[in-house]
Amino acid sequence: MFFRRIPVVLFKCSIAWHNLFERRDQFLTALMAIAFVVFLMFSQLSFRYAVSSTSAAFIRELDADLIMVHRNRRVSHLEITFDQSRLYQARGMAAVKNAYPLYITLGSWRALNAREERPIRIFAFNPEYPVFLTPEIKRAQLSLKTSYTTLADSRSKAVYGSLNSGIQAELSGHSVLITDTFTLGSNFVAEGNLIMGDQTFFNLFVSQPSGIAGNIRASPQQVDLGLIKLKSNADIEQVVQALNQELPTDVIVKTKQRLLEEEAKFWIRSTAIGFIFEMGTGLAFVVGIVMVYNIIYTNIDENVPQYGTLRAIGYPRLYLIQVVLLQSMTVAIAGFIPGFWLSVLLCRLISNATGLVLSTSSNTVHLVFLLTMSMCLISGFLASQKLRRLDPADVYG
């Protein structure tokens, strides 16, 4: 049975291939249209990915099993702190190996000889603690014991001026020295990042306004994130449950993965940014259906005599519709390839220019390919309705 159907399938493919290549200009137009729509969908989804991934990029780099935050701190850039004594309490649990404080705020950066100040995100911790997983930070963090020194993100935007090692600049009214660089990337809160020792952080920001709301951090005991390391044999979920039961209700302990998911969800679901990019993807999909429909319909109209002949010699309407759907699948695959590579090039150019992490991840590739195939099949099916009404008598009458 299978081998008997091979000639039938090959005949369908030959008709579809002939109809597409009979008018090469039309075929190229179809490829360009699909590649353009693929490019639009990739760009929208890549920006959507950048929104969620860049805001939480630093969380992925934290050397922690669990993370403690104030219960009302729904997203990392909100400066709602908790008392460091909560970390001392967490250390008292048998399964906890250690707990470190991490401080986060926004400061104002001004390059030497520059007039304009720009907000820059700051992370601070005790240089003796293994807080970050990033090799560049681990290698250079001991230099942060010196007062008024900092590490600078090499992927910060060019508006901050040179951020190379040895550069001096002004941070929130104080002169600081860049001792080394690391790689993280900007986000939608700030376009650059700094890392400094906790003593420098206290000198700069305790009792001074900082952050988005300009709040005053009254004491070094005010911690933004608590990084908890567990012993090797500890059950993470059990420890999370135990800590949340024993600690006061002003704090909550979460797994690192849960915090990452909540951060991404905030930007995608709780702000207009995610909706805008999702709507852009949907509009590109609809535009693609209309464009491909017009191309396939025109191709069918030009080959009506051929389809009429097939109907006259006994081929059913379903057979003709399958030929059209094969054409749609062919142009979908052929148009997806240039659209994909154009999108990869765009992501690299924008990433280099802005510091945002735009990536054509495997999930994005699979989703766009599925959308492209669906778009072309829907267009082909709608255009093939002309064949449902086809009567050989009308063609040769």
Could you give the order of strands across the largest sheet?
3-4-8-5-7-6
The rounded distance between the terminal residues' Cα atoms is 38 Å
Order of helices and strands: HHHEEHEEHEEEEHEEEEHEHHHHHHH
Q: Roughly how much helix do the residues carry, as a percent range?
A: 40-55%
Whole-number mean pLDDT: 83
Percent range for β-strand residues: 15-25%
**Tally of separate domains:** 2
**Number of discrete helical segments:** 14
Structural class: alpha+beta
Largest sheet: 6 strands, mixed, barrel
User: What form results from the Cα inertia axes?
Assistant: elongated
- CA-based gyration radius: 29 Å
Please mark out the parts with pLDDT under 50 across 5 or more consecutive residues, or reply none: 1-6
Number of strands: 13
